[in-house]
Amino acid sequence: MIEVGRPWLKFLGWWRKPIMVLQAQDQLDLYISWMRDERGLTSLTAERWQAHVQRFLRWCDKTDRRLCDLLASDVDAYFIDEGEGRWSRVSVPAIAAALRSFLRQCAARGECDPRLPETIRAPRIYAQESLPYGPGWSDVRRILAFVDPSKAREVRDRAILMLLAIYGLRRGEVAGLRLDQIDWGGRTLRIFRLKRRQKQIYPLVASVAEALAHYIDTVRPPTTSQQVFMTVQAPLRPIASSAIYHVVHRRFAALGIQTPHQGPHALRHACAARLVADGLTLKEIGDHLGHRSTSSTRIYAKVDMTSLREVGDFDLGDFQ
What is the extent of the structural domain holding 24? Predict the structure, then answer.
């Protein structure tokens, strides 16, 4: 009832999200401006770091702690109270980095102890310690083939899923895709890569072109918005990048596909693993995925079983 009623009341202008004013709201606003204007973070990263800091400041208000009086033991208590049993080993370093960054900004203005930011330590995450966690390509084929053409949501979601799996796009890149980025005559797709901060041109694969055209011609609601993907229920608006997760997760759940992660990045990993299997170099794979450096692509060397077997079979001769 709440999930249905709240969007409807927002559309009518009868309900607005309550605004919670924090004791350190001014400091948070300055931090948000710094992330956007000076650090130049992407909107998705800035929103995530803002959420981490907001959660911490709400905890400070709830426990009657003031920014100017914070001690290292207070930050430790926050991680124990809020994170125990809920935050993963990978999540903790991200939260710690956001808090450290925020407190450094506050310390530079004399609003907290200048020694405090450097006391925040997180568990070490070793480079290349994990494996890519995407589904196998046979499961990706099932995901892309599973569509009910009579349902508008299914037609839209299939186009989204194809962009994620075939081009390895990030969810923000899919949500931000505009109509003028699709060159139907030239059969190309222009993507603004969020990490590289530049445009990249891809050939428009026939199957992707067909899925996009089917969605735009038959399902996409009439609107003045230039963004390709819209919500399917009122109020009609461009789809948010956070909604892309639910698009992917619904398909994994419907097909019973079991993977450690079931979001858009899982399909990006599947795309990379497929390119490795096809014999592309790490440089070529990194270019396709829009990586800024090959260091981000090295993890996929672990799934290149052909090359790993060649290394294992290498004859060391007299060096044994």
Answer: 19-119
